[in-house]
Amino acid sequence: MATTAARPATRSRLPDLLAGLAVAGLLIPEAVAYSSIAGLPPQHGVTALLAGLICYGLVGRSRYAIVSATSSSAAVLAAALAALAPGEPSQKLGLVTGLVVLTGGLFLLAGAARLGSISAFIAKPVLRGFTFGLTLVIIVRQLPHLLGVKTTHTDFLRSGYELLTQFADWNLLCLGLGLGALALLFALRPLRRIPTPLLVIALGIAAQALLGLDRHGVALVGTIDLEFRAPTLPELTPREWLRVAELACALLLVVYAESYAGIRSFAFKHGESFSANRELVALGLANLVSGLFAGLPVGAGYSATAANESSGARSHLAAWIAALTVLVAVLTLLSYMALIPLPILAAIVTYAVTHTLSLGTLKVYFRWHRDRVVLLCAIAAVLLFGVLPGLLVAVGASLLMTLSGFSQHRVAVLGRLGEGHDFVDIRAHPEAKQIPGMLIMRPETPLFFANAEQIMAHVQHRIERLSRQAEGPPHVVILSLEESPDLDGTSIDALMELARFARTRGIELLLARLHEPVKRVLTRAEVPNLPDPELTNWSVDDAVSMAQAKLKSTPAREPD
Which of 89-98, 283-292, 418-427 has the highest mean pLDDT? Predict the structure, then answer.
């Protein structure tokens, strides 16, 4: 009976075992490749891989998420290091440790403060445009390895121009190796259960061993010095810590936005529970441990997570098996990994990031006629200004365009639709009838400091224009604030000015569709010339009925 009971358990773990082995075959070459993106030795990527797999497996919720170094986090780290210590390799180790540790600490603080919605600071069009531009930057940075030349620039435009000027020095053997590796990777892409990057690396090592590629100008990865040292914090000056903290905030946003999108999509796909705050803590622990051991920043990359799912993973066991496989591999195969030709590695990096170059995810914004400028700004900002400045420019452009849209003083005039209780915009519904003696208006955007005064001025201008017509000014003005969940000080001042304006002309001002926060703030403000805010949470139809009853029972008030 004991044997019979053990067999189902063994079979249930088999998919995780196979998935862990398959994913490890993908992650090992990616760890080495992403280290090259960051401009660091391969051991930094391997350390990050082990830390991410183990720590997320202990704390994270997703069964499929694979937390390791990603192309985006590696590229952001490279940009941060270039900003912190340009041309000073001796300072890199301490800065890497400080930056990744501080990023992990910020993740933990965000999780403790329950800031799971922090990814909302980067809109999807900005993230997709940023990722698209970042992918182009990464590919251009791999071209020197593919062409067997060296460049002095790392930015997109100058690096590309420098490569073109070195056309005569291109190494055709390097180019052939890289293109051959890329062709093989794409040809085997449909075979998801085969770790094609590992296969390509094995072929590259075999070619080096048999043909001595390094004697023909093909650079190799070189010695990988993987040391298991005690975790330490770097000795940085207060000024350096402050600068590192600034960059850690940007790194946190990029890593979390990328990770959140992947983890959430797979959770929804499989009906799993999902806690954004718990994911913050899991990613924080993974980055903290990776940083203490001098690893790269880590996140839940979409491609690795998708590979884990498609390989049949059912639990965290797949990630732990992958971590064990990686550990065994690096302990036994380091001498062979040093023989990887750099053109092969550059081809693997290029292959790993090409999934983000899909134009389909960008076309939808042009079809929807929404966020096209934001998307193009994000791409252009990364290509023109670099990775970190480009991200800040893209986020800033997104926020400015959003504020610009909200600041427009669009105000609809409402009329009754048929004989019912619905009041709609008369521009969209010409058949809607305005109520005689009343002007009913609705701001189409929330009131806030950038638009409140313009909107109230528009209402006043409408009243004055009606006053010059034969029927005279309206007896009642009803302002529907259904689009405003709350009011700031500028909005309250603007409402008070509108109330004074209406009173001087003998017009009664009523407010409709007030949200509870708006009612509370108007009650505290004790706005003169307005009815008690506790009584003004009517629908527009209720406000109209009340106004009509008052008009019948009360003579028109003379202007002040």
Answer: 283-292
Other Cβ atoms less than 10 A from the Cβ of 524: the count is 10
Range of the domain at 211: 14-150+160-402
Asked if residue 317 is part of any domain, the answer here is: yes
The model carries a pTM of 0.70
Q: Quick one: 468 and 526 in the same domain?
A: yes
Contact predicate 84/244, CB 8 Å? yes
Per residue in 450-486, pLDDT (tens digit) is 888 999 999 999 988 888 886 778 889 999 999 999 9
pLDDT tens digit sequence for 329-364: 888 877 787 888 889 988 888 887 787 787 887 888
Final residue in a domain of this structure, among 368, 402, 436: 402
**CATH number, domain containing residue 484:** 3.30.750.24
Is 5 a member of any domain?
A: no
**8 in a domain, yes or no?**
no
Q: How far apart are CA 383 and CA 393, in angstroms?
A: 11
Residue 214 CA to residue 408 CA, distance in Å, equals 63
How many domains does the chain fold into?
A: 2
pLDDT band at residue 535 under the 50/70/90 scheme: low
Contact 44, 355 (CB under 8 A): no
C-alpha to C-alpha distance for 455 and 407, rounded to whole angstroms: 9
Going by C-alpha positions, the residue among 403, 405, 427, 404 that lies closest to residue 415 is 427
Question: Which residues, at least 6 apart from 66, have a Cβ–Cβ distance to it below 8 Å?
Answer: 23, 27, 52, 53, 300, 301, 304, 305, 307, 308, 319, 322
Q: For 89-121, what is each residue's pLDDT tens digit?
A: 567 788 889 999 999 999 999 999 888 777 666
